[in-house]
Design a protein that fits this description.
- It is a single chain.
- The chain is 16% helix and 37% strand.
- By secondary structure, it is an alpha+beta fold.
- It has a 16-stranded antiparallel β-sheet with strand order 16-17-18-19-13-12-11-10-20-21-22-23-27-26-25-24.
- Strand 21 and strand 22 (383-389) form a beta hairpin.
- The longest helix is centred in the first third of the chain and has 18 residues, at 66-83.
């Protein structure tokens, strides 16, 4: 018996009517017919705030004046759709925010109100009646919160893996010399998912092991179908890489405890008084019969004074013979020429991955539909491949970014960009991609079904590219 969520709607058939001003209508409900998508537009609207609005935004509450700019934005969306010959518009996403910007040759920062949108400009078929299924946002730019009711039905489990992980009853975060989270070294690899639920990330490692990552902080390694290591707060990704992973309420916020009395940020001196801890160089560990628990400490300042203390921030649960050394990610070989063709907008064919190239997967909770997540594959330390259909192995996004695993120097990243013929500076990017939308630190460009979002170090024309997202 599974719990299944069904939508509750008023039973009537909305109809489509042309707006009084002749502009394409922003739909509150999806069409009944198979409509044609003329274009999917990622729009960016920026408005400079005056002094009165700055006072209103003092407490970061933008709802007091955002309606004025929403009206302008909605009108702009309709005008753009009209120019493309669209009948109607479906708004898929609206993000609002306030940011500071320093215009070129001006030392004074100004606050601006930004609206980011994703819309579909569509052509309707002859039957212009609408369903009772609401679009994500209505014609006033308001997000539609769908009312749900819960019923029990006999049905196959169609809940996304991310939702399954979110709803999973996590085991107690108890750590001993025999078990961590109820798992023990030497147990079958299959017991990881059974006890912990679906992982956030699954990675192939250079030593032949597989890493199951839960949230951003808990790493469980298996090799030869057995558990061989469990790490807490010892990620092999850097902060940039870890931030790619959606946090887990189950495993990033757990109150882990060792032997019932040692906890996160306990001082080393306090722990030494409680346990018999072995020291090898700068490493501390507790020894059991078959396992050892390596304790990881960091130095913290106390009470804003010069006094410092070593505090516990993580651990590694390993077999006794384990050296405690970390392994690294095994990156797969990708067809670099095909990626170059995507960047240069010369190849409109689908980019299909081989099964072996699917092995390093980061899962993020951007729902593609009710049963699948969008997923990112780590191609190498600088490239992520986005896919929205695991079975079809079809690429939907390519992202070039600073290293996910280490502190990469500027020249190394520039060379990576050059290898794919990617412009290095903002001026080079604007020159190569004419008709781009310049929005300070970000530049947006779209051609046919390919869109580019380039992020630079600053709004300066000589600023270096630090992130490029290609959406197909």
């Amino acid at each position: 018996m599974f719990k299944y969520l069904v939508f509750s709607f008023i039973l009537f058939s909305p109809s489509f009517t042309l707006a009084a001003d002749g502009l394409p209508q922003i739909l509150d409900y999806y069409p009944k017919c198979e409509y044609k998508v003329i274009a999917t537009k990622n729009n960016n609207y920026t408005y400079e705030l005056n002094e009165n609005e700055l006072l209103e935004s003092k407490d970061a509450n933008i709802t007091s004046f955002d309606g004025r700019y929403l009206e302008n934005m909605l009108s702009s969306i309709q005008q753009d759709a009209l120019s493309q010959g669209a009948d109607a518009i479906i708004i898929e996403k609206i993000n609002l925010g306030i940011f500071e910007s320093k215009p070129i040759k001006n030392k004074v920062y100004v606050k601006k109100f930004k609206i980011l949108t994703t819309v579909k400009n569509i052509k309707l078929c002859q039957d212009r009646s609408l369903t009772t299924k609401p679009t994500p946002y209505n014609n006033k730019g308001q997000q539609i919160i769908q009312k749900t009711e819960e019923v029990n039905v006999e049905f196959a489990n169609n809940v996304s893996q991310y939702k399954q992980a979110e709803n999973h009853l996590a085991p107690a975060a108890n750590i001993t010399l025999n078990h961590a989270y109820g798992l023990s070294n030497g147990e079958p690899e299959s017991s990881i998912n059974q006890l912990m639920g679906p992982e956030s990330v699954k990675l192939s490692m250079q030593d032949g092991s597989t890493a199951y990552v839960y949230g951003r902080t808990l790493w469980i390694y298996a090799k030869n179908s057995q558990i061989v290591r469990i790490d807490k707060n010892q990620s092999i990704l850097n902060n940039h890489g870890s931030n790619m992973i959606e946090p887990s309420d189950n495993y990033d916020q757990d109150n882990w405890i060792i032997d019932g009395n040692i906890q996160f940020k306990d001082k080393l001196a306090q722990i030494l008084s409680l346990e018999k801890i072995e020291q090898e160089g700068n490493d501390y560990h507790l020894d059991g019969k078959n396992n050892k628990l390596i304790l990881h400490f960091e130095t913290f300042s106390l009470n804003n004074r010069h006094e410092t203390a070593e505090m516990l921030t993580g651990y590694s649960f390993v077999p006794r013979e384990n050296s405690g050394k970390f392994t690294s990610i095994k990156f797969n070989e990708f067809d670099n020429n095909k990626i170059k063709q995507f960047i240069e907008n010369k190849n409109k064919d689908e980019f299909i991955l081989s099964p072996s190239q699917l092995s390093n997967i980061i899962k993020i909770p951007n729902q593609v539909d009710s049963s699948r997540n969008e997923q990112w594959i780590i191609a190498n330390e600088n490239i992520l491949i986005g896919i929205n259909d695991i079975e079809a192995r079809k690429v939907s996004k390519i992202r070039f970014t600073e290293s996910l695993t280490r502190n990469q120097n500027k020249d190394e990243f520039i060379q990576t960009l050059k290898n794919y013929n990617i412009p290095i500076t903002k001026s080079d990017f604007l020159s190569k991609n004419q008709d781009s939308e310049d929005n300070f630190e970000q530049v947006f460009y779209r051609k046919d079904n390919v869109s580019l979002t380039a992020t630079f170090e600053s709004e300066d024309m000589n600023a270096q590219l630090i992130d490029l997202l290609i959406e197909l």
